[in-house]
């Protein structure tokens, strides 16, 4: 029976071998033809790549000419030359050797009226002057080569009677590419035989070029129509068995076909590939035939007999159900690996069982690692399983907890069961979640999810509980913070409104006290005059305080708007210095101002800028020692101006530095008690700097003095409003960091 089985397989192997040989022969034939076609495609692709290299060389020449004409046209000397026709410019920059050095045959300067200001034509090889083509002059006259705007340019070919010419035209602008245009600068380079030979050397190809306005050879005539319709397209066709050619066109300045170029290449790739494929085809046919015969005998000896052995083993194991047996085959081949897999399959049965146990342990470890309380209960509300956190909370182990009714467990479970109506979940089959407050005050988030079997029947409920007490407290703090912020804005608006109401009567008090002090209504005795002076000074001090409160309230209420204007920085700093010079002179303090030469004007709110500098300089003078020095320095930092005010006075203690820039806060150092102040000055300075989109910082050492510095944009009006708000917010954060 086994012999008959083996003979049947042997016949089948023979038939399969013959079929495989037939299929392989057909495949070899098909592959031969397909590969031959692929070689044709490779030849086409290789030719296209070579032609594109030629195109790139031509485009590079045109690009170089465009770059050179732009470089010359956007030059202040050229810009002036159109008006003054400066002979020195001609003698220095327009020599024959100059044009030959930059490989330009023709250079023409034309003004906006279309008149030729200057023209020169040279031989790039000999640097000798040549006559200018009449065709070029005609195209200048009819405007074909003239630009029409500051951003207009012309680039391409023109067909002259002598030779085709690369042409590039650019408007004449200043060195900074600004107009208005003074005219057009025209550069030209002849596309002659010498230039064509240089392309041949660079691209290592054979090139033929014909003009579109002249008669062409027969093969060019068939391509002229396609090239005219699409000059950018490359046409590749074999010329004969040994050569293949690629045709491409070049446009004139109007976008029409000007030149047609053919690049010839040898067909070595295709011929070599064809010979190689023929050799391989017959070699594979012969190899396949010999392989088929050998495979037939090898399969009979090495495969069929061993396959029968495997079949007998599998049948025996299945009949005896003895999984301890193992199949033993020699040789490291597919059949050996098959026997190894059969042996491995017997081991997998055992390993699968172990894996299931391991997965159960992993799930338990995963659930035990959760901080949430997880309990799985039966429809009778008895505990089936609980994770480690739940067991610790109930002070029970899993063995003692299993089977216990959830209502009887200690902790939150009993009241929670009543709150969740677990019995209702088993009947409604709906998931339920919510929050629950235990007797100890803790807030718990719970969720109960029904669990069903394959038939959709509920077999239990998975209950999870998470302590959210801290989150609830954080939410409460956030709400209180929001309420406080609203109250603060309300306070700021109230202060702003009240400051307006207070200034009106206060201005009247100051005005009438000044009239009395100046004796407009009659003479006063010395005591009366001193009292009226005190009233005026106190009123003005109170008015300054109210103004500071009003400004600070406007900022906090978001109502302070900046009025940007351009002003001279050095002049403004000197005016602030002059304004405070009486205070400085009383203490014999020298104020020095240093401004970068590149900083002429800035754009900001001039009045608020003066308010910033007044406060900083006033503080520096107040806290400086007699015969001291205060330095003001203004530097450019990118698009911003950085201004520092440095004194060598008493300095600020470390414990007092946190009070700076806070409203109504004053440092408590011994020396500072001699100086009056409201504590609003630096707070206003910080807010105004931030509104400008800048930030402020300071450095101070006790006994060595203090340095206050701030930056604001030089051109503050160039940012959009939204960007300014975002940047001011970001910079305010930076300022708070630097204060700390």
UniProtKB/TrEMBL annotation:
Task: State the reactions this protein catalyses.
Answer: ATP + protein L-histidine = ADP + protein N-phospho-L-histidine
| Region called Disordered, residue ranges | 719-740
Q: Which domain of life is it from?
A: Archaea
Domain named PAC is located at 430-480
Q: What is its EC number?
A: 2.7.13.3
Gene Ontology molecular function terms on file: ATP binding; histidine phosphotransfer kinase activity; phosphorelay sensor kinase activity
GO cellular component terms given for this protein: plasma membrane
BP term (GO), one: phosphorelay signal transduction system
**Family matches, as InterPro entries:** CHASE4, HAMP_dom, HATPase_C_sf, HATPase_dom, His_kinase_dom, HisK_dim/P_dom, HisK_dim/P_sf, PAS
Protein localization: Cell membrane
Keyword terms, alphabetized: ATP-binding, Cell membrane, Kinase, Membrane, Nucleotide-binding, Phosphoprotein, Transferase, Two-component regulatory system
Q: Where is the Histidine kinase domain?
A: 497-716
Q: Give residue ranges for domain HAMP.
A: 301-354
Report the enzyme's class at the first EC level. transferase
Q: Which NCBIfam families match?
A: sensory_box
Q: What is this protein called?
A: histidine kinase
Q: Which organism is this entry from?
A: Methanosarcina acetivorans (strain ATCC 35395 / DSM 2834 / JCM 12185 / C2A)
């Amino acid at each position: 029976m086994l012999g008959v089985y083996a003979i049947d397989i042997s016949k089948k192997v023979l038939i399969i071998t013959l079929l495989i040989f037939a299929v392989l022969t057909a495949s070899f034939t098909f592959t031969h033809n397909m590969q031959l076609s692929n070689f044709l495609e490779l030849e086409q692709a290789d030719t296209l790549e070579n032609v594109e290299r030629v195109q790139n060389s031509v485009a590079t020449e045109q690009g170089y000419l465009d770059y050179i004409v732009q470089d010359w046209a956007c030059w202040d000397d050229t810009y002036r030359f159109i008006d003054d026709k400066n002979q020195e410019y001609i003698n220095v920059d327009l020599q024959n050797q100059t044009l030959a050095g930059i490989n330009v045959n023709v250079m023409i300067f034309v003004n906006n009226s279309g008149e030729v200001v200057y023209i020169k034509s040279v031989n790039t090889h000999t640097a000798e002057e040549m006559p200018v083509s009449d065709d070029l002059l005609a195209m200048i006259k009819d405007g074909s080569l003239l630009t029409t705007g500051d951003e207009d340019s012309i680039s391409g070919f023109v067909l002259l009677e002598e030779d085709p010419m690369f042409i590039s035209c650019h408007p004449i602008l200043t060195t900074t590419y600004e107009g208005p245009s003074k005219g057009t600068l025209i550069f030209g380079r002849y596309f002659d035989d010498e230039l064509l030979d240089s392309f041949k050397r660079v691209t290592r190809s054979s090139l033929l070029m014909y003009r579109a306005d002249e008669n062409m050879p027969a093969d060019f005539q068939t391509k002229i129509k396609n090239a005219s319709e699409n000059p950018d397209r490359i046409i590749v066709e074999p010329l004969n068995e040994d050569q293949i050619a690629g045709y491409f066109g070049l446009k004139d300045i109007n976008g029409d076909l000007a030149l047609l170029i053919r690049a010839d290449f040898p067909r070595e790739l295709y011929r070599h590939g064809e010979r190689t494929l023929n050799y391989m085809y017959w070699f594979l046919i012969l190899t396949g035939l010999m392989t088929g015969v050998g495979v037939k005998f090898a399969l009979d000896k090495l495969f069929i007999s061993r396959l029968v052995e495997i079949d007998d083993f599998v049948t025996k194991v299945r009949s005896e159900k003895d999984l301890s047996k193992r199949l033993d085959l020699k040789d490291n081949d597919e059949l050996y690996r098959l026997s190894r897999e059969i042996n491995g399959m017997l081991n997998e049965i055992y390993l699968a069982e172990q894996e299931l146990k391991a997965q159960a342990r992993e799930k338990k470890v995963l659930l035990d690692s959760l901080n949430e309380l997880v309990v799985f209960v039966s429809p009778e509300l008895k505990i089936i399983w609980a994770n480690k956190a739940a067991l610790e909370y109930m002070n029970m182990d899993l063995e003692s907890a299993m089977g216990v009714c959830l209502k009887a467990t200690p902790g939150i479970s009993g009241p929670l069961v009543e709150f969740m109506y677990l019995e209702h979940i088993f009947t409604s089959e709906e998931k339920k979640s919510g929050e629950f407050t235990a007797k100890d005050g803790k807030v718990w988030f719970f969720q109960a999810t029904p669990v069903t079997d394959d038939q959709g029947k509920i077999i239990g409920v998975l209950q999870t509980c998470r302590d959210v007490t801290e989150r609830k407290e954080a939410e409460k703090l956030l709400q209180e913070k929001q309420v406080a912020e609203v109250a603060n804005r309300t306070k700021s608006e109230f202060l702003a409104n009240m400051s307006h109401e207070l200034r009106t009567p206060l201005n009247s008090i100051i005005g009438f006290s000044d009239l009395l002090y100046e004796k407009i209504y009659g003479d006063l005795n010395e005591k009366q005059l001193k009292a009226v002076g005190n009233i005026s000074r106190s009123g003005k001090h109170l008015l300054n305080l109210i103004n500071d409160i009003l400004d600070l309230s406007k900022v906090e209420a978001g109502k302070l708007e900046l009025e940007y204007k351009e002003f001279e920085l050095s002049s403004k700093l000197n005016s602030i210095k002059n304004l405070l010079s009486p205070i400085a002179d009383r203490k014999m303090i020298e104020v020095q101002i240093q401004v970068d030469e590149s900083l002429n004007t800035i754009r900001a709110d001039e009045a608020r800028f003066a308010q910033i500098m007044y406060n900083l300089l006033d503080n520096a003078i107040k806290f400086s020692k007699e015969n001291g020095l205060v330095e003001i320095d203004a530097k450019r930092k990118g698009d911003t101006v950085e201004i520092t005010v440095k004194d060598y006075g008493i300095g600020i203690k470390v414990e007092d530095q946190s009070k700076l820039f806070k409203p109504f806060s004053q440092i408590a150092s011994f020396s500072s008690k001699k100086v009056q102040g409201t504590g609003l000055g630096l707070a206003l300075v910080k807010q105004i700097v931030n509104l400008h989109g800048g930030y402020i910082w300071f450095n101070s050492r006790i006994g060595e003095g203090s340095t206050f510095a701030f930056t604001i944009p030089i051109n503050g009006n160039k940012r959009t409003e939204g960007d300014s708000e975002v940047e001011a917010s970001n910079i305010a954060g930076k300022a708070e960091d630097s204060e700390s």
